[in-house]
DNA sequence: ACGATATCTGATATCGTTATTATATTATGC
DNA sequence: GCATAATATAATAACGATATCAGATATCGT
C-alpha cells in the first residue's frame, strides 16, 4: 500500500521546494513564477495524482469547504428536495454538504451541532427544533456562521431565510375562492411552528377579506404527515353536513393523504372536492389527479443561505438579515370551478 | 467576536500543559492521571465550551470522522432511504455523512471523488455510474477505503455490498404464480445494470421453473422512473389481447406509475391486475392500494458498508469482500388470487 | 535513608499545508 | 560595471491537535 501523497512528494518529484508547489496550488498576490517551474510542478501533481489536503489547508485559516445542513425530518420530501438543491449549490462551488437529520429531537440536534462544530464546518444551515438564543450566539462568537430556515429564534442575531408562508396561504385560499368555493376546509399542522401559523393566517385572512366566514369546525390540526392527512380528512368527511367543497392542506403530504381518504370513500377529485396543497414536492405532479399546490422558493432559500455564509465568512456579519421569498401558485388538476 | 477556543486556552484556564489536556481528551494506554487534574481540565473544557478540532486531530493520524456517500440519483426514494439509514449508522458512531449525488454523470462522479479525496474522508460508499478499475485501485493505494454498492467493477479489489436481486425477482414472481397467475408481465429497467439484469433473470427463471412460458412481448424496458412505468403500462394495456393478469415492476416508482395508468383506464387493482414492485420505498405503503413489494436489505447494506470501512481502516483490507443480503417479500394489497 | 519503581505531568516534534520573510538570480538604468 | 529594482525560489514559523520522550513527584522495600 503506497502511502499518502503529500505536497512534499510533489516538491521532490518536481525538484522544487514545497513553497513553490504551494504557490502553484494557491497563488498569492504579487507572486511571480516561471512558466517552466509551474509546468514542472503541475506535471508532478498530475503524475502523482496529488490532491491537497483540505484539513491542512483549513488549519492555516482557509475554510473547510464543508457546510452542514440540519433538518428536522429527512423523510419529508420537502426537506429532501431542499437538501437536493442545496447540494447542487454546494457542488458548483466545490463545497461538501454534510447532512444531519435531527428527527425532531433536541438532543439529536445538539449532538449534530457539536459534531459540526468539531468538524469546523464553514457554516450551518438549520431548520431548528429547539436551539436557544444563547447557544446560537455562542456559535456565532466562535466564528461559525449559522443560518436559520423557516424559524426565527428571538433575541439571536442570526440571519433567517423565510418562505412567505402567509402569502402562500393567501394564494391557495384565493385560488379556491376565485373558483367559486364558499366553504373551504383546512388541514393544518400543529400550531407550534411559525410556518404553520402563517399559512393558516393567510387562509383565515383571505376568507375574511372575501367576506367569507371562518368556520372552526372546518379546521383540523395534526402533524404534517401523510397519515394525519388521511385521518383528518376522514374526520371531516364524517360530518359531511358541513358541506365544504374545497380543502386547503398545509402541505402536500397531508393533501395526498386526504386525497387517498376521499377516493377511498368513492368520491372524486376535483368533482366532489377541490384540493390545494403546499410545498410542490415532486410527488405532487404525479399524483392522481396532479395536485394544485403552492411552490416554496427552495432554490432561493438554498442560494440565499449559502451566499450569506460565504459573505459572512469574508466580511463578517453585517446586520440582522431576514429574508423573505415569495411562494407561487402551481395550478394542476385537483381544483374545479363551481357555482 | 471572541476568537476560537483551542486546546491552549483550555490548558491555560486549567493551569496545566496542553499535553495534559490532550490526555484527558484522548487517553492512551498506560496513561495515569490524578482525578483532581482531570477534573480541572474537564471544568475548563466545559467553561470554555471547547470542542477539539477534528481537522487537527486527523492530521495526526486519526480519521476525519467523515464518510462520503455517492449516489446516482438523489431524487430516487430508494437512495433517499438508503442515505437515511446510513446517516443513522454514522450518527451513532459520531461520524458525519457527506452526501453527493452524481446525477448519473461520470464527470460529476469524478468531481465528487476528487472532493472526497481532498477532504480525506475515512471512506467512500458509492453506487457508481462509471468508475473504472484503475481509478478505484488508485484510491485504495492512497489509503481511502471505498465500498461499492449494487455494482461490481471487474478487476478492482474492492468490497461490494449486494442486494440479492435475483432472489428478489424470484420471490416476486413466485408470489404471483402462487396466487394462480399464469400470464405475468414485467416492466424492466434498461438492461445495463447488474441489478436490473438479475431481477429480470429471477423473473424468467421462476416462470420457467414453474413451467410457464416467457413471453418477450410481456417484457417492457425503460428507465426505472415513474413516468416510464406509466408509459409502458399504457403500451402493455393497449395490446390487451395478450391478456396478462399480473405485473412485476422492477421498482416501486415504476409500479406506482403503472398503477396510475391502470386506474386511469378505469381498471382496478388488484381485481384486474395484480402488481408487485421492488424496493419497498415508504411511498409504497401509502399508495392506493398499498403495494406488495420486495424489500431491499438497506439496513444491512448501510451497516455492512460502514463496518467494512472501519475494519479496513483498522486492519487493512483483508480479502475481496463480496456480500449478498437477501430481499424479503412484503405482502400488501396489490395482489389477488385468481384461478 | 536510599535506590527502584510506579504514578503523574510537561516539552517537543510532527501531521500537511500556507504566509511571511529571506535569499538568490536576472534585468534595467545611467 | 555597479547600484537598484524586478523576478523567482527557498527556509521557516505557524495552524491545533497527539505521541513520544523525558522529567518530576510519590510510594515502597530493605
Write up this protein.
The structure is a homodimer of 339-residue chains. With 339 residues, the first copy, chain A, is of the alpha/beta class. Chain A has three domains: 7-52, 434 Repressor (Amino-terminal Domain); 66-163 and 299-326, Rossmann fold (3-Layer(aba) Sandwich), CATH 3.40.50.2300; 165-296, Response regulator (Rossmann fold), CATH 3.40.50.2300. Chain A is built from twelve helices and twelve strands. Chain A has helices spanning 7-14, 18-25, 35-48, 54-59, 77-92, 106-118, 133-141, 165-178, 194-209, 226-238, 252-264, 298-315, and strands at residues 66-71, 96-101, 123-126, 146-149, 160-163, 184-189, 219-222, 246-249, 274-276, 293-295, 322-325, 328-330. A six-stranded parallel β-sheet of chain A has the order 2-1-3-4-5-11, sandwiched between helices. In chain A, helix 5 (77-92) links the parallel strand 1 (66-71) and strand 2. In chain A, helix 8 runs parallel beside helix 9. Chain A is elongated and about 85 Å long. The N and C termini of chain A lie far apart (77 Å). In chain A, 47% of the residues are buried. At the A-B interface, helix 4, helix 5, strand 2, helix 6 and helix 7 of A face helix 4, helix 5, strand 2, helix 6 and helix 7 of B. Chain B binds a DNA duplex (30 and 30 nucleotides) through helix 2 and helix 4.
